[in-house]
Amino acid sequence: MTNEAQAAPREYRWRMPANWWTRNRHYFLYVVREFTVVPIALWLLWLLVEIKRAGDGPARYSPHGSAAFVVFSVITLVFALYHSYTFLSLAGVIIHFKVLDRPLPSRLIVLAQFALWAVASVVVGFVLIWFAR
Amino acid sequence: MADKRITIQATRYDPDKDERPRLQSYEIPFSDDSMVVLDALNYIKSEVDGSLSYRWSCRMGICGSCGMMVNGTPKLTCNAFLRDYWPRPVVVEPLNNFPVIRDLVIDMDDFMHKLKAIKPWIIRRQEIPLGAGEHRQTNEQIDDFRQFSQCINCMLCYAACPVYGLNNEFLGPAAIALARRYNLDSRDQGLKQRLPVIADNEGVWECSFVGECSVVCPKGVDPAKAIQQTKLETTMRFVLPYGNRD
Question: How confident is the model at residue A120 (pLDDT cuts 50, 70, 90)?
């Protein structure tokens, strides 16, 4: 062992506690935000299965309509709304537009995104209802 | 007022004796509403226990050396008023996510290496001779990077970042914010030299946008914004035709 190694101070190595995300409201909301994609991904996988079945013809198509699935769908919808809300709010921080050499305020960008979201929802809803008639 | 007292629980760690850090309580006079946590530590060191170790320098929120965890939140102790905590005890611990050298002193070598890696200075392909005069900027050009230039390297953002806590290979908030400060500077031409570090897996892409770095910054810098904007910019450079230009 060299003299330098002998002289090196012994440091206490920091370890992240397993419950770190419960110690702060922001950490908790962050983990919830990240977790919401799990049920959304599962629901979308099931949607792909339903689309495949629908493509195989009316005889094989039997949409899943149990009470448990309806509850799961409602919970997934709440998670999807929460995730979309956080995503669009945060995206306003990221996007950096300049008009006439002046940066657009983040608030305006966020509002524009929420407006686009509302318009897209109305259009998709209209198309679904129109073709389902 | 003269009888008012406050309990300070400070982390003690002697690497030659202790297996792990422990808290030690000190009850001290809280004689003045303008007292900050750093004043309390200075009182303990000068009047109660001279062996307590911690870093500090300017006492006015400029040097960035007195950052510690105060009741679990990363704070500059010169800017954390005891009146905001009294009559509850104030727990003062070393900054999270860093190795502890002694008591409240952390090892900041990792941050220093990361800071150096992003080359936080103006890089020119060819230096302009002094005789050519100053390199002028408009107010709008300064506004582009001004907020990121307020960083005082206090490392509170690293202590608040769970991503850095879980993987200390992550370049981290302050280093990326400073890289963005120079990349946005109209005088700088060093983007290509910084890209291999900031666009690396352990660079901006390790960040999952917790956002706590921006919440705790004592100077109003928004490192989370710098990181997400860098993600967008590096992606556009990759995707757009001729995007990889200087």
Answer: very high
Q: How far apart are CA B217 and CA A124, in angstroms?
A: 42
Is residue B183 over pLDDT 60? Answer: yes
Name the nearest CA neighbour of B213 among B117, B148, B121.
B148
A40-49, A61-70, B36-45, B225-234 — which one is most confidently predicted on average?
A: B36-45
The token pair at A109 is: 């960008």
Residues of chain A contacting residue B102, judged by C-beta atoms under 8 Å apart: 9
The CATH number given to A14-94 is 1.20.1300.10
Q: Where are the domains of chain A?
A: 14-94, 97-133
Q: For the residues A81-104, what does the mean pLDDT come to?
A: 82
For residue B164, what is the nearest residue in chain A, using CA coordinates? A16
Choose the closest CB to B97 out of A11, A14, A23. Answer: A14
Cα A104 to its chain centre, rounded Å, is 25
**Contact at 8 Å (CB) between B197 and B127?**
no
pLDDT at B245 over 90: no
Mean pLDDT of B199-214: 93
Q: Which residues contact B95 (CB under 8 A, 6 or more apart)?
A: B67, B68, B69, B74, B106, B155, B156, B158, B159
For residues B95 and B69, the answer to whether their CB atoms sit within 8 Å is yes
Is residue B173 a contact partner of residue B158, using CB atoms and an 8 Å limit? Answer: yes
Question: Each residue of A36-88: pLDDT tens digit?
Answer: 999 999 999 998 988 888 888 887 777 777 899 999 999 999 999 999 998 88
Which domains does chain B possess? Answer: 5-106 (3.10.20.30), 109-239 (1.10.1060.10)
Query: How many inter-chain contacts (A to B, CB under 8 Å) are there?
Result: 66
